[in-house]
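User: Okay, second chain of the day. Same drill as before: sequence in, structure tokens out.
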Amino acid sequence: MRRSLPLAVAAVVLTSGAGLYLATGANAAVACAPAWSASQVYTGGNQASQSGHNYTAKWWTQNESPATHSGQWDVWADNGVCGTGGTDPTTPPTTPPTTPPTTPPTTPPPSNGTLPAHVVTGYWQNFDNPAQEIKLAAVPATYDLVAVAFANATSTPGAVSFAVDPGLAASVGGYTDAQFKADVATLKSRGKKVIISVGGETGTVSVNDATAATNFANSVWSLMQTYGFDGVDIDLENGVNPTYMAQALRSLRTRAGSGLIITMAPQTIDMQNPAGSYFKLALDIKDILTIVNTQFYNSGAMLGCDQNAAYGQGSVNFIVALACIQLEAGLRPDQVGIGVPATTSAAGGGYVSPAVVNQALDCLARGTNCGSFKPPRTYPGLRGAMTWSINWDVTAGNGWANVVSPHVHALP
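Assistant: Same drill. Structure tokens below.
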């Protein structure tokens, strides 16, 4: 995300599939782990056995059979034969399907807020730049989830603070913290959700140890109580420690309850590999994560889930091929959103028209209107789209949300 006029960013990432979770085998039979149970929740590192094989979960999972979910992009890693090599004594044999399913099996998502099935997310700028400055209550009704950009780091490690920016206040003819708080309540009375975003392009928030994790959770919870925020958005573009940020977010969830909204806005390069820190964080908190709105811009060219070609940004192929990585490597469709700039001025590169955004949504959710790249399956339940920013969209006459919002809400 950008606080000021952006500079163009170009990066070509030509990496192999190395580092992705690959299934492994064992030459010697070992004791079988406890039998897999469809009702049990497994997290990364947990083990189970099925049909004479031991498996290790790569991330949070429930009701996803190891026998049919242990491929390169799947949730289980096959550790090889266990016991006598036949079926384990407590589980009947399972015959894998002869053809892959057209849609990935789904599990009931955990409760995380009362958002609609499909969501349009926009960032509201708490600063002044060439985009149109607006008060929070002036956010158009086409947005379901408003991320307030941004909370700032304090002198206390991990802690963040928020106040209405003086430059913004001057630009809109005066705007106090009390008026902002009332505007949060106004948006919520309209059925919208408002969250506080942490980070941004120049953000310096760092959560690298247990103390910082506690400070982060305490400070975000305080902001939620003070202003009425419904959750938090993680937009740390200068690195994230998945261990301690997960600790902080779980602590916050304990306080806020199942209504807490947790979103993330990683850069495209951060979601290339499940072993990367941002991707790992998303998988580690999959049970409490609401949406990952990856920034499919300012990226140059990058590999898609086929690992065969570098797709250039600013195209339907780029969006679909890179979103496919997240959808095939562990995130549920309802946890994936498409992040794009609202106008050409909102980013250094990678802008696509609203029509192309809708085309990408159709390709992913319905399997229609694809470019030359087609994903291996469809993903009904895809959560929606995000833009940077509401202010840039308003500046251009709301052309982005007016086109994308009705399309998002008509998705399967």
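DSSP finds nine helices and 17 strands in the chain.

User: Thanks, on to the next one.
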